[in-house]
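Our preliminary data section would be incomplete without showing what the modeling component actually yields. Below, a chain of 502 amino acids is followed by its predicted structure, encoded as tokens that our downstream tools consume directly.
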Amino acid sequence: MKPSLSFLLALLFFLGQAAGDLWDVGPPLPSSSSSSFPGVDSGSSYSSSHSSGGRGSVSQFFSNVTGFVDDRGTCQCSVSLPDTTFPVDRVERLEFTAHALSEKFEKELSKVKEYVQLISVYEKKLLNLTVRIEIMEKDIISYTELDFELIKVEVKEMEKLVIQLKESFGGSSEIVDQLEVEIRNMTLLVEKLETLDKNNVLAIRKEIVALKNKLKECEASKGENAPLVRPSPTPGSCGHGGVVNVSKPSVVQLNWKGFSYKYGAWGRDHSSQHPNKELYWVAPLNTDGRLLEYYRLYNTIDDLLLYINARELRITYGQGSGTAVYNNNMYVNLYNTRNIARINLTTHSVAVTQTLPDAAYNNRFSYANVAWQDIDFAVDENGLWVIYSTEASTGNMVISKLNDTTLEVLNTWYTKQYKPSASNAFMVCGVLYATRTLNTRAEEIFYYYDTNTGKEGKLDIVMWKMQEKVQSINYNPFDRKLYVYNDGYLLNYDLFVLQKPQ
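Predicted structure:
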């Protein structure tokens, strides 16, 4: 342990006093010139500046040294020190102050380190928010009011932190000022994005409400002599001439697991007994694009939009994104097999399993751009279907009508359309419609097969999409919509059918 400064100075002072004592008293000298004290004559005095030899080094420590012989012949010497009183108390006070300052410095340094870590964390959050907003600026993805509110909350939290940091630093620093400017810019950007609403989803929803109100007013005020208009086919019925067009996509929401879960399926349950019942399901696959492990059920579309009131359930045996829901049952391909299963959504248990005869599986004949979807379930006005391929069909699409309770095959049709060249397929009134990719922003309904007549042919109905790949398409007969899983985003389309002449 090193000695303190006050201890060293006190020791030096003590040694100085001891040296002075040695010089105060000397031995008696004879009166003759042969003095025992060399270099000093009788009655003479000298200064330390004149001394030399062995005692010259001693004189460096003293400002003045004098000596003389008194009447008794005794040599008397005196030493004058520059400052005989050393300020020990002031040194101790200085040492105490230095120690207190050191402790305070260490405490403030630890605070600075803590704030630096906090700044680093919030810099990462700020970077993540910046990336999200850049995506919102560059892409045409729709965001709901909830997304904007969540971003605003995060920005406000960072604003509070910056204010606390500035107060703690007793002023401002360069990094805190920079963060404050970036957060302020982000706040303005979020407000601007919310105002612009690039996809116009919120504006469109408001316009739809306004249009519905106008329609109600129109119906209430129309006269008895209004012209007769042929009604559209009733939803859920097949009194039409087939699909002729689709609407532009409406972005409902990103799947609840996030951007990384690009593969999966979603839709609305169709029940022939309760056609207007609302039950929405979302089944994203794991990031391997193969295993179906979790799915969620929502009782209303608003719950789905806000990610609330969901029933999240786990299974460990689903494979691919060919899932469908019909009459409160989920139908899946069992993992690593050609077996199919019916899951009761009330009890969340496997009610029935069945082998799909001769079906190719494990990515043998899946759709283009989508792996592990060899077996694809479909629902329409006529019930439950399954679309697949066999080795005997050389990869062409095979359509089978299933008993939705026992999963037994009721009938089968063989098409001339090679399944891996199609991007997906769905059923409407017993007619298979297949899609293919035109480019990163458009699909095309290019092929149909009518199980009612055995006829097949070509179509050219363009389906616009939000992202590059379509993973699944599910049709709901009641609202006559297509529910499309598009690289993690949940889209839906209105179908337009050809009205048969009366």
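The CA atoms of residues 319 and 335 lie 5 Å apart. The radius of gyration is 46 Å. Preliminary results of this kind motivate Aim 1 of the renewal.
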